[in-house]
Write a structure and sequence with these properties.
Helix content of chain B: 25-40%
Number of strands of chain A: 6
Largest sheet of chain B: 6 strands, parallel
Largest sheet of chain A: 6 strands, mixed
Strand order of the largest sheet of chain A: 2-3-1-4-5-6
Radius of gyration of chain B: 27 Å
Oligomer: heterodimer
Shape of chain A: globular
Number of strands of chain B: 22
Distance between the termini of chain A: 33 Å
Strand content of chain A: 15-25%
Strand order of the largest sheet of chain B: 3-2-4-5-7-6
Largest interface: A-B, 55 and 58 residues
Strand content of chain B: 15-25%
Amino acid sequence: MKCDVVIAGVGGQGNVLASRVLARAAVAAGLEVRTSENIGMAQREGPVASHVRMGKGLAGGIVPDGEADLLIGLELAEAVRALPKLRPGGKAVVSTTVIRPPSVLLGASTYDVDGLLGYLKERVPDAVLLEAEELAAAAGNRKAANSVLLGAAGALDGVLPVTADQLLDALLATLPPRLHEVNRRAFALGREAPGKAGKV
Amino acid sequence: MALKVLLGNEAIAYGAVEAGVHVATGYPGTPSSEVLGTLAVLAREKGFYVEWSTNEKVALEVAAGAALAGARAMVTMKQVGLNVAADALMTLAYLGIEGGLVLVVADDPGPHSSQNEQDTRLFGRFAKVPVLDPATPREARDMAVFAFDLSETLKLPVILRPTTRVSHVCQEVDVNETYDPRPVPGFVKDPRWVCMPAVARARHPWLNAQQEKARELLAASPFNEIQLTNRLGIIACGVSYNYVVEALARLGAAASLLKVGTPYPLPERPVLDFLRRVDRVLVVEELEPVVEEQVAALAYRHNLRLPVAGKYDGTIPREGEFDVDRIAPAVAAFLGVPYAPPERHALPPLPERGPVLCAGCPHRASFYIFKEAARGTNAIFTGDIGCYTLGLASPLKAVHTCLCMGASIGMAAGLWRADPKRKCIAFLGDSTFFHNGVPGLIDAVYNRADIVVVVLDNRTTAMTGHQPHPGTGRTATGEATREISIAKLAKACGVNFVREVDPLNGKEAFAVAVEALRRRGPSVVVMKSPCTQLLKPQGRYRVNPEKCSGFKFCVDTLACPAILPGEEYPVITDKCVGCGFCATVCPADAIEKVVET
């Protein structure tokens, strides 16, 4: 049994923290883990992809192309950039948050929001799409978007090797107590998302 | 024992604690920085000594002194840091040590955040010191403990060489937090601690003999492991072992494996044993063919006639970081089995997203001010290593060279010698100035180079995670200490024109820049303003639509991540930290501070 997750976003979105929460939950559930990410230059609003591998008999920290069981996207374009990691039939939980880099502001490259959304829906028809930053803001802090997405990922049936409650425990154990209430609310809003998305 | 999810770098720190380290030193550098950062936290609780040193050479010298007194010492740096420490290391191997001395030198295949991808295993061979190359965080912890014993048995420094995919990979690790150091015996005077030529002549044969002794000790270590299945052999070193195991699983193929954790000196016994049991062998390792060359030489010396595939026959790439996707085709080709790459779909056009200076970063203001002050002069801006290397991007385009730590000053002087009609302006950070900028500045004064040196003093070592440095008044473990003034230091070096100014105070800073360019150099401008990551936001700014001309001058000249182009006029988002520099540059005076009601 093995579960590979890729968390894609922009430096500063709480990507690394989300990977630590998954790792912590998996170890608490008696599994082995590997996480991997680039720290350093990437943190200055650069693209960040964290890899989390959970299961037994693990080797390296990098999720190979076409093998991720779940893609968690904190930002739309970065989620699409990481799609080659997803296996056929893999699941995706993606925030429709758009962060335009300076190259777009200066006209050196383009950010086609509708085009990227369309591509994502075509490649992963059952992708759960949500506005994680807005939901986090409703919970009390935009920066808790990572907790919203963890909640949404935890609510997917049979994808992660840990339950949503185990994930929430790991989240709270990772955060200082003063952030517990906001993140508990953010996680709960995310947790409702897959059901709602199904009804739309 | 406690089971913790640890980064490889944290696991190495816990290994050092378990080994009873007395003194730990280092200079920050990705991907190595968390080793000493973790030790600095543990030091307060356990009571050993940790320092961020001014540079890697000093770090190694402090550690070497401690080790000569019989203490266990660890020194941490990134791969290019070892170049700075090389002078000390090359001769320390001749002198030898008493207490265990372990250098943690983190390599960056890729590279992800370095100016080159040099291979420290090759450096170990050059310096004649053993190198351990872990595959996982857990193995890195075990190797850290082992390395201290090995160092003391051989009386040689030992290099532990994690790569990014160990340093920055998390794994569950059993941690023994007991700190039980043995007493430090103290320094014993002996003429052999003085590296006179006669000492070197006497010690060189000893050093060479230690290589063979190391080979034996490493052969008996648990870090090289043989798994035999058939007559096709794969030797894999460090993290490459993980990718080979996964590639075989993906291919549904089998091969005999030799995992190498000790690439230099390569232990003969397990390698010969393996070579005798296979018909062909493939060597998989990132970067240089360090293991491959030793395997080929060993096979030749022992008259083993078997093909060795790897870098020399082009099976394995010699550049860049590996992963399963890069290694699986090579393994398939070697085994003669089919390889089907994962199905690929063409991605739609994606926005280019490189790392950028943060919203409100004072470096943006410093570059803008000097660009304006030097406008029309075709000035050359020499850059250096730090966040401010990002000043090369559009629209600032204010970094024209970058070589290594501190090089901005020497290169500006050299450019001015060869191209004397142009103004040459060196930009380097505060930590970089202390690290290796000072000798360059003294050289510029001594040899009368007409250059301007701009120290971007953001009061921290920002790029690597905000470590303190000699200008901050804080030590690695948080104690208050003497704060060394960059401006006073520059004056003491003999610079006549030295000014300290806040770049966010745009008008005053601009006047200083103009004056510095007008004077005969060398002159020094210290652009002093703390890193935004260290401060709470100082309020917010907004664009006043009634005053804004809609030219978007702020967007096009600053590219601050907090300013979006908007439909008619720019919009300042909640990323704004209130630096206010955009308000200084706006030609229409349309940017104003938001008044909280």
